Amino acid sequence: MDHDSTDHPKPPRKARQGSQPDLPPQDLTAADVDPATSAAEEDDEARLPEAPEEPAEAIAEGPLAIGHTAIENAVRLAPTSPGVYRMLNAASDVLYVGKAKNVRKRLASYARANAPLPARILRMIAATVTVEIVSTTTETEALLLEANLIKQLRPRFNVQLRDDKSFPYILITGDHWAPQILKHRGAQTRPGRYFGPFASAGAVNRTITALQRAFLIRSCTDGFFESRTRPCLLYQIRRCSGPCTREIDFPGYSELVREATDFLSGRSHAVKELLAAEMEKASNELEFETAALYRDRLAALSAIQSQQGINPRTVEEADVFAIHQEGGYYCVEVFFFRTGQNWGNRAYFPRAEKSFTPEEVLASFLAQFYDDKPPPKLILLSHDIEECALLADALCVKAGYKVEISVPKRGEKKELVTHALTNAREALGRKLADTATQSRLLEAMASTLGLPQVPKRVEVYDNSHIQGTNAVGAMIVAGPDGFIKNQYRKFNIKSEGLTPGDDYAMMREVLERRFKRLLKPPEGDAAKAKPDDDSFPQWPDLVIIDGGRGQLNAVREIFDGMGLTQVSLMAVAKGPDRDAGRETLFMPNREAIKLEPRDPVLYFIQRLRDEAHRFVIGSHRKLRKKDIREAGLQEIPGIGPSRKRALLHHFGTLKEIERASLADLGKVPGVSAESARKIFEFFHAQPG
User: How far, in Å, CA of 300 to CA of 281, rounded?
Assistant: First the structure.
């Protein structure tokens, strides 16, 4: 689905001239990201939820009777109109959110003492002490409100959509005379045409790269574009037509943009026919270089369509959902088709009790999935769901156009659903196998290290700084399902009296800030965190730090001071010459542990430590780059106003100075070899 928000502005009259060197961005994909809405490009892997345990014992008559009484009291005051109801326990935690066309009638069905209800519903009733009701004008409004509240409150007895986030789009900007192609996440506020959604950032990056080869549209920022006086490397490798220095005129570039827009809008066949005709014409006129350029562009378009796998013939725009259940877990596979092209797929693992049917899980999943996303005009499902017409009406109201939901029985649409169902089955099988492997590693680590229990949550901490500046600490989290990236945290070091480079003091601040949140119960809505909720914060079973016996003792003192005794501690010291496989493990009141280099447990611990190091280094670099851009070049020793002006005049932007090589810095008038070295080392120094 694409969105058009503006016309192209007029080009400037004349480009600046000069002798600027050929300095393209070194990271060719980095320029494809909209700086206003850039996000972490590592997609968080979907993970399996903890399977809710079904208690074997019978429900006591007392609590069930109390729940019935609470619901009966609510029935007397409930309206007979549409609305949403919330069941709460004694701690005011929301247990369940439901909607009904007639709220009083729906609540009355829970209040009947001898009604044959599933065990899940009986447990919910037994825990209920009060019911809150919100009336709505229509049942459609009730459905939309229910989906929003479930995502916000994460009630224990509802189906919960997990690992939900915005999808990336391709944006062809409309606020510059030479439109730019880039990846975009978030609100679509920038003028231009949006194409998507794509299932992953990787799919967008691959498509943008191929589109650059096919249509030669620029991907550089406006600041970089305006500073050019000669084409960059992308022009040399035929991934840009060079509008910055008028290697192509305005009408010619506009034609390239139009062709790219047509291709992304679904008119790919017409675009390919046009390019083939131009190639044939150039060949007949013996303009073989031009013909070769058209040939390469056609090949790039073919590469895009070949990477997309199945491309439907009769389905222009649709989302395909297929659900598979196995071992008490559910997997929903989603395929996105836009403009007759496959724009990727993604697997979700919603949290739901075993008593839910696949149809119930899929219905709740759909309502939550489209709570913050525009739906397509057609949604294809693998299972019939209740209130399908109501959900379609709700999406129509939300989107402003007709949305059809169907379960195809034959033809190409049925083939698409079958393909999605196969992917759902395979994705759940892989995830179950990966989870089993991770669980075995955790069990082996508990046995090898003599831990009191198999850890379900492992937290690893690391610090990063350069001579005490831009100090940052970080925490990564791992469990039976692998790394839990949406629970990673970074801690900007704030202590004013901290000695630069004091790793012990930095670790003390990080751990105290982390665990004081757990020791002191939060107030307000945060106090309603459920004990079985797997969202942050949670108590870890094992804390790992990067360091030796000294770091371990320092952390132990911190924990003793806070009265933490239920958390196991371990420090991982690097081997001689920092060789992987020769690490030493330290634990309180234990002799140092050295595992065999090929031990799977040691490899697992190395992975945990390396992931923490990767995350903290990335956090440090982002903080440092922000600090550098805010302070300009004044922080570099020996760089005064004159050299700063010379550097900016030569490179155009601070970002390009940061990317420049040592040799290129030395070419700037007024910058000596020693100054160039200081500048280069300032931007490329390794954090400690």
Answer: 20
Range name among 61-75, 210-224, 628-642 with the lowest pLDDT average = 628-642
Q: For residue 670, which amino acid is it?
A: G
When pLDDT is cut at 50, 70 and 90, the band that residue 326 belongs to is confident
| Residue 673 Cα to chain centre, angstroms | 43
Do you know the residue count of the chain? 688
Angle CA(544)–CA(483)–CA(454) in degrees, nearest 5?
55
Report the chain's terminal Cα–Cα distance, integer Å: 46
Distance CA 170, CA 177 (A): 18
Query: Crossing angle of helices 201-215/288-307, nearest 10°?
Result: 160
- Sheet of 130-135, strand order: 94-100, 83-88, 130-135
The pLDDT mean for the chain works out to 77
Q: Using CA atoms, how far apart are residues 440 and 160, in angstroms rounded to an integer?
A: 27
- For the record, the structure tokens of 30 come out as 């980095």
Element (H, E) at 170: strand 169-173
User: What is the DSSP-derived secondary structure letter of residue 350?
Assistant: -
User: What is the H or E stretch that residue 543 is in?
Assistant: strand 542-546
Least confident interval from 100-109, 266-275, 350-359, 373-382: 266-275
- Whether the bond between 537 and the residue before it is cis, its omega within 30 degrees of 0, is yes
Structure tokens at 490: 């970074």
Q: What is the largest CA-CA distance in the chain?
A: 92
- In degrees rounded to 5, what are phi and psi of residue 68? -60, -40
> Cα dist. 260→254, 263, 578, 626 in Å?
10, 5, 50, 34
Residue with structure tokens 């004008």?
137
The tens digit of pLDDT for each residue in 37-90 reads 333 444 445 666 655 444 434 444 457 888 888 888 888 888 899 999 999 988
Sign of CA dihedral 555, 559, 564, 565: positive
> Is 316 in contact with 171 (CB distance < 8 Å)?
no
β-pair type (458-466, 542-546): parallel
Q: Do residues 171 and 199 touch, judged by C-beta distance below 8 A? A: no
Query: pTM to 2 decimals?
Result: 0.64
CA distance 230 to 228: 6
Token pair belonging to 130: 């009060």
Alpha helix (H) residue ranges in 14-93: 61-77
User: How do beta strands 542-546 and 568-573 pair?
Assistant: parallel
Q: 99 by DSSP, 3-state: which?
A: strand
Q: Is the dihedral of CA 497, 501, 502, 508 positive or negative?
A: positive
**Sequence-separated (6 or more) residues with CB below 8 Å from residue 262:** 268, 270, 271
What contacts 415, CB < 8 A, 6 or more positions away?
A: none
The H or E element spanning position 627 is: helix 600-631
| List of residues 6+ apart from 384 with CB closer than 8 A | 359, 407
Strand 489-492 relative to strand 192-195, pairing:
unpaired
* C-alpha dihedral (475, 481, 485, 491), degrees to nearest 10: -10
